[in-house]
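Entry 14. Ran structure prediction on the chain below.
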Amino acid sequence: MSQAEERYLVLCVDRDDDLGVKAKVESPVIGRDSTLAAATRLVLADPEEADANAMFAAVRKYDELLKVGTPCEVAVVCGEVNRGFEADRRVGREVASVLAGSKFSGVVLVSDGGEDEQVIPIIQSMKPIVSVQRVTVKHSQSVEETYEVLGRYLRMLVFDPHYSRYALGVPGLIFVLAGILIVAGRVFEAQLATLLILGGAFLIRGFGVDRTVAGLLKRGPTGYIRLVSMMFAVLIVLVGIFTGYNAMLGDSTAVSAILANPGAILVYGATLIGYLIGGSLTLVWVGIAIYATGALLSHVARDSARWRRDGFVLIMLAILYFPLRTFSDFLETGTAVSSFLLISAVLIGLAAIFAVTTAIYPRVRTRGTPENE
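Output, structure tokens:
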């Protein structure tokens, strides 16, 4: 067939037969006037029906092709309500019936997407599909509801204090602080402050620190004891870690050797770890002891049996301190005397742990009813 003889079928497919069920129109529908009348009846029967829009789009496509001088015809074919095999078979029969009425060189498929496009292989087995036009309805109730729900959540992020402190408060603090530092010429400090604030916000929200603090404050005096002891414990532990880090950097020979040759960490790594443990152990242990003491006082004030557990923690801290101190000295020096002290400390510590665990821990588990902290 030459180009002058080309003729196309603008085809709209209604796979679930909404045209027949809702508008009571028999298919196939062939011709512009018939298709326009069928689409009008369907949209009157169901104004929200997407297939009616597809039919109107098929008529418009038919008019556009005629306007540019392309011979064509427009038609609508339907399937069955239950879709599936019977629907596809009926679509195939009706497409064959339409194609048999005239010679077409190809099909222009107009579809509202979804299931109607599942019949493409059936149509292609009869005539090539030269174009597919997908019709999308601009107004949709589901889309409108989605925007309404989205707007409600956005208002919640802005006006609800529980959410706005993170959605607006944290970014606002970052922008203000970063802006001040940038104006002052402190670009690096602005970047560092941004990372610290974001990291702190993520840490607090991720581990539920804000909820823990709020829960402690609701308990009255006992909650304040726990909160203050927790704050001091965290600060002292951080200072202890910083002190141990500085003690580790104090061995300039080992640090310089590792920076010059990373493989030297196998030689000096144990020594640096010893300095780190030795420099931070006392303060870290004090911080943990303060936290355990605060918990113990809080539970005693509440007449909770959990104070025994806190006392057990304090005893274990006292027992483990000397072995860990000896272990750090051994890593720093590696002498025979420190080795002997380490072995002695470990044996004494194990014996003490075994004795305390055997004598106290069963009573801690069985006495009293567990309560929430």
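The chain is about 70% helix and 10% strand. Will compare against last week's run tomorrow.
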